[in-house]
């Protein structure tokens, strides 16, 4: 099966701590790397994770609070120092566009690659990126400012070739892709070998949903229904529910309700308030509702 992984670079919230870095993740899908959010210190975390800078093709910024975007211009500058030539695509709320252009002109005048900005309408669910292997959709969220999450959805895969049948019928390599696409085979004696005998079913397509800063949305589960892995912010435990409502954040209990109602495979909690010396209370709270829950931690690599 082709790789589909999420690398956690940072999972803290707004106030810096010595334990957690500001929010950032890298999604590796079939060898293509996409960054989600880019808080301060992200490029150092990239070094620690041994993720190749040059392979990141696009950055998706959920909203314009500093703990989700202050690291972007520094990382772009470093890309320039490393001699990057490939374009970098930045998907973010429209308000970032003019600010990013000013920063690029002031700090990065000599870079030899293009930074292509794509404005996101955070109020609607829509496909904002697509290539031959996946789509990325925006997920409208409810925060103090314009904010959205992202849904990475793998496109349908081709079936697997049965090597024993290929050898038995002496099918040339040049025809393998046609067979994967559904073609039958005619053997040397003119007999048709059905496609079903030559292949085994494709692996099921996978999906990863990233729900950044948001208050609890009772209908959010409809948007992320059935995804393999859901990342949902869990800034507070339920004893701090009033504070969560005030600042448009979620509790671990609320994140687990979304996961349960959506029927997801796995829930990953993150964006922890600095008040917690350990996040065990958040994990325990979520597990009472959705047992297959884990805590995001810097350096964690998650198989979607």
TrEMBL record:
Please state what the protein is called. Ribonuclease Z
Naturally occurring in which organism (per UniProt) = Hoylesella loescheii DSM 19665 = JCM 12249 = ATCC 15930
Binding of Zn(2+) 2, residues: 67-68, 213, 271
- Which Gene3D superfamilies is this protein grouped with? Ribonuclease Z/Hydroxyacylglutathione hydrolase-like
Q: Which cofactor does it need?
A: Zn(2+)
Quote the PANTHER family the UniProt record gives: ZINC PHOSPHODIESTERASE ELAC PROTEIN 1
Cofactor, how bound (note): Binds 2 Zn(2+) ions.
Keywords of the record? Endonuclease, Hydrolase, Metal-binding, Nuclease, tRNA processing, Zinc
Q: What is its EC number?
A: 3.1.26.11
Oligomer status and interactors: Homodimer.
Q: Which reaction does it catalyse?
A: Endonucleolytic cleavage of RNA, removing extra 3' nucleotides from tRNA precursor, generating 3' termini of tRNAs. A 3'-hydroxy group is left at the tRNA terminus and a 5'-phosphoryl group is left at the trailer molecule
**Is Nuclease found in the keyword set?**
yes
Q: Where does Zn(2+) 1 bind?
A: 63, 65, 143, 213
Q: What is the lineage of its organism?
A: Bacteria, Pseudomonadati, Bacteroidota, Bacteroidia, Bacteroidales
Name the family the entry cites. Belongs to the RNase Z family.
Q: What does this protein do?
A: Zinc phosphodiesterase, which displays some tRNA 3'-processing endonuclease activity. Probably involved in tRNA maturation, by removing a 3'-trailer from precursor tRNA.
**Active site positions:** 67
Q: Which GO terms describe its molecular function?
A: 3'-tRNA processing endoribonuclease activity; zinc ion binding
InterPro entries linked to this entry: RibonucZ/Hydroxyglut_hydro, RNase_Z/BN
